[in-house]
Structures are given as structure tokens and as C-alpha cells.
Amino acid sequence: MKTNPSAGKPADASMLVNAAKLVTAYDTEIPDPSVPEQRVAFGTSGHRGSAFDKAFNERHILAISQAICLYRKQNKIEGPLFLGMDTHALSVPAHATALEVLAANGVEVMIASGDEYTPTPAVSHAILAYNRGRKTGLADGIIVTPSHNPPHDGGFKYNSPNGGPAQSVVTACIEAKANEFLENGLRGVKRVLLGKAVRASTTRRHDYREAYISDLAGVLDMDSIRGSKLRLGVDPMGGAGVHYWGPIADRRALWVESHGRQRGRRPDLSFYDRGLGRSDPDGPLLALRHAEVDRIEESLRHRLRLRPRSRPPRDRQSKRRVDGAQPLPLRRPPLPLSASAAVAR
């Protein structure tokens, strides 16, 4: 398999997504249920698409969320629903839309402490941990993620009480009901304002990260990993586990280095998975200081046999470029749910 020519290079302007326009399309575009490409269509447990194509927008999420509420009621899934999201631009507004519907239907929803990003395995772990030893009142979950899809896509997945992706017979039922809601102009869909949804007695906070990291020793031999003195190199590729590897390394005393693309510090690079032909947004990142970033980047470049890029010298005290170059622009951090009402409406 050939390596993508963009691998390891700064992203070209043509590859970047105008997040403001994308979220506006999510809020304003109205899908036509008579057009197959604009209907709800579940793939591997979820619906994916771009708001620019009218394939993923607010109406889709309203319809799918209500369909999931009906499915839960019909199948007596009465425990909490664990709701997580990744770093794609459409994930925050879709997460807010889903919460509005779930709260209106009286579903107990577990959202992340601090409105953190939540990797899919962390949501699966939360479901399994809650359901362990239970036969009734089981939990399930929703992960707002299109997985490895491009930045302009959004995704919405349903996880069954077994913690894994819902089976096709389940998603077919949810898909059919969601499209019925779209065809009927969302008649029958319940919804409350986001502020009310966040304050609802049924909306609670769950520390996905702490619960997941605390349980790692139950499935991995951390003593052996630590004793091997492995030096682990990690790159999140913009993933939902952006804040997971730091605590993992600190708690387990592991030697972990990361290619430093911490939000707000460095421009995104284009990466290509030689084996799968795609990038993975669920990988974790350990945030590092600028000095560490340079050292690790050089090491990774050597291993990947990439030609080193020339860099202007840095002032060691200020860590600023000293050749008059402009500092890198900051990327906007994710909005907390309490501040995202204007975006999600």
C-alpha cells in the first residue's frame, strides 16, 4: 500500500473544514426523506454523514434520539444511558440535541464530568461496569462519533446493554422509526431546551476517565509493562482520548511520549495509517511541554523516515520563534454544554 503524499505534512488549506459553516448547516439544513442520501442510514451501529450534504443534521439526531427512547421503552431498558462524544466538529451540537430529547423523555443520562471528550471504549466500559451482576434495570449508551471519518462528518452510534455496537436487527428498528419521524415532520419527537435538559434531575455527571483508568489493572498486567521499561510513543490524531494517556502514565508510572499536537498549540498534521488507509480519532494523547514536543517529533520523524523540516531557532526563555515569524494560531477549544446552547439550537 502506498503512503499518502500528505503524510507527516502540515494540512493543506483545502483540507481544512470551516467549522462555523458546518455547524450552521447542522442547525439550518432540512433533509428530504425522499432522497436516499438524506435519510437516516445505520452502518456499523450508527448513522454517519456530513451536514454539508444534508446527511447529518439536527433533524436526524432529533429523530434518532426519539427512536432510541421508544426502543428502550419497548425493550424495558430502564437503567441509565451513558452519553459520550468525540472531537469532531459536529459532535458537540449533536450531543446537545440528543440530551434535549433524552431529558424530555425522562431518560436518566450520564454525561461526562467537565464535558470531556469520551472515547468509545470508555462508554462501553461504563455500560459493562454498571450492568455487572444485574438482570434488570440495564444501562446502554450513545457515542456521538463518526469514528475514522473525515472532519466534516458527524456520527451517532447506539450501544446495547452488552456494551458493544447494537446488532443490525436493533439498528434497523431504530433507523425505520427515525425515518418515519423525518417523513412526518418530527411529529411525536419530544424535546426541551438545553439549559433545562442539563439541569434536569435525570441528567447526571459521570467521570468516564477515572473509572476507565482505575479498571485498567484488571485487564492488563501493568507491573509487567512497567517492569519492561518500554518507551511508548502515542499520537491521538485529534482523538477523543486526548486527556487519557497523561493520567494513565502518571498513575501506572509508565514512560509515555506523545507527538505533541495538543489543542491550541500546534497545527494539525496529516497522518496515514499504512495498514488501514485511514487515521484513527480514538487514540489518546499525553500533553507535553514545547521543549518535549521538539525532541519527540524528531524521534518519530526518524522512525517514520520522514525528511526533517527546517525550523527557525527558538528563544529558550520565551520559547517563541525569534525570526519574526507569527505564532501559531490557537484552535478553539470545545464548548461546554452550558455554553453551547447557541451552537446546538
Mean pLDDT: 79
The top-level CATH class of the largest domain is Alpha Beta
H-E string: HEHEHEHEEHHEHHEHEHH
The description of the largest β-sheet is:
6 strands, mixed
Explain what the structure shows:
The chain has 345 residues and is α/β, with parallel strands linked by helices. The chain has two domains: 16-207, Alpha-D-Glucose-1,6-Bisphosphate, subunit A, domain 3 (Alpha-D-Glucose-1,6-Bisphosphate, Chain A, domain 3); 215-303, no CATH class. It has eleven helices and eight strands. The protein has helices at residues 19-28, 58-74, 91-104, 120-131, 168-183, 194-199, 208-214, 222-227, 245-252, 290-303, 341-344; strands spanning 46-50, 81-85, 109-112, 140-144, 153-159, 203-206, 231-234, 255-258. A six-stranded mixed β-sheet has the order 1-5-4-2-3-6, sandwiched between helices. A two-stranded parallel sheet has the order 7-8. Strand 2 (81-85), helix 3 (91-104) and strand 3 form a beta-alpha-beta unit. Helix 2 (58-74) crosses helix 5 and helix 4 (120-131) crosses helix 7 (208-214). The radius of gyration is 21 Å and the shape is globular. Mean pLDDT is 79; it is low at 260-296, 307-313 and 315-345.
